[in-house]
Amino acid sequence: MSIGLRSRRRSAFTLVELLVVIAIIGTLVGLLLPAVQTAREAGRRSACMNNSKQIALGVSNYESVNKGFPRGIVGGTVADSALIAGSGFSGYGTHVLLLPYVEEQILYDKMRVDSTPSSGTYSGVPWRLASTDATLVSTYQGKRVNSYVCPSAGVYGDSSILANCTYPLSTGPNLSWTQLNTRPIASSSDVGTDSALNGAIRLRKMNPLREFTDGLSKTILVGEQLLGPGTMGSEGPASAFNAKTCIGLGISWSGNQTTFDGPITQSQIDSYLDASATAGAAGTYTGTMGALWWRPVNHCTLINTVCPPNDRRPSGLHNGSTTDYGNSRGVYVSRSNHPGGVVHAFADGSVTFIADSIAIDVYQGLGSRNGGETVAAP
User: Fold this and answer.
1) How does pLDDT run across 189-208, given as a tens digit for each residue?
2) 20 to 30 A Cα–Cα from 263, which one of 30, 43, 196, 223?
3) Where is 62: in which H helix or E strand?
4) Residue 1: CA atoms inside 13 Å, Cβ hemisphere, count?
5) How far apart are CA 178 and CA 184, in angstroms?
6) Nearest-angstrom CA–CA distance, 187 and 84
7) Which residue in 172, 158, 199 sits closest to 292, CA to CA?
8) For the chain, what are the domain ranges?
9) Least confidently predicted of 99-103, 132-136, 355-359
10) Is 138 left (phi over 0), alpha (psi -120 to 50) or beta?
11) CA separation (Å) from 364 to 82, 125, 183, 308, 354?
């Protein structure tokens, strides 16, 4: 009987043995955790690339139907003639036009009806109600389109706004709204007069395929951006300023505003973004990056390729103000939480991961549709 008792006692773990087992398990977990995190990020990055491709293919399908890439802004509270002349910032962005091509036809149809005024000058004309209309905003700010948000991008600071966008479309290597301020389009039929806006997306005109003289596979169409904290300007404390998710305001740009006119150099960008960082740190910034997928402005649905991805300094809005959604000229950096770079889709529908270390002239060349640069996607 004593032998049996000794046998039962030895079948249990001693305290020392238990501690050793716990230590081994803890070590294994510590070794496996980075691998698990890496695998999860790989999955998120794969999903991000699928989203980018879906948007790029949506643009391609739009072009097949309409014989041109969609313009960056449509509608608003002014006539087409005024839009062409450079007026009216209350319209809708490209992502609205793409809804039917990313399996959101029902949402598109409803929004089209809700944005059509029933009385006044534009009675019955689609997209004439201002996209800033309070009723419209309250109706659609909770309408999330999953393919418009990267799973690695984080969450927007205002939890009531779910209609976010982390896949801005590229207007190329320029300050994006330069066309409206320096080269008004002459007429609705003159598609060549706004060539200074030299990216895949123009603001007021569709971009026909003949304009992509560099080649569709060598022109960036879709970039990435992170989501802001949801504060405008000094509404938030300076301590809340984040260079990756906020934009410095009140910054003056010097030098060429588009590579169509000549080089935009690294030294010009450095000076501008350093000033942007100073302004942001002092509390003058906008935190509404990626807020709404229907707003046709930089820091919501548009981006440029002036500066390579993930610069350590904040993007900068040229001579901006805390209420300025319209004249959003500036340097808007493509950003992501993917380690080492940013996912980009090209005008031919291909998708690639561009490293932060890409040379500035190569990145600007990839952003241009017609610059004649001898560059290719990495």
Assistant:
1) 444 455 567 899 988 788 99
2) 223
3) helix 15-66
4) 0
5) 9
6) 7
7) 158
8) 148-367
9) 132-136
10) alpha
11) 30, 38, 21, 8, 13
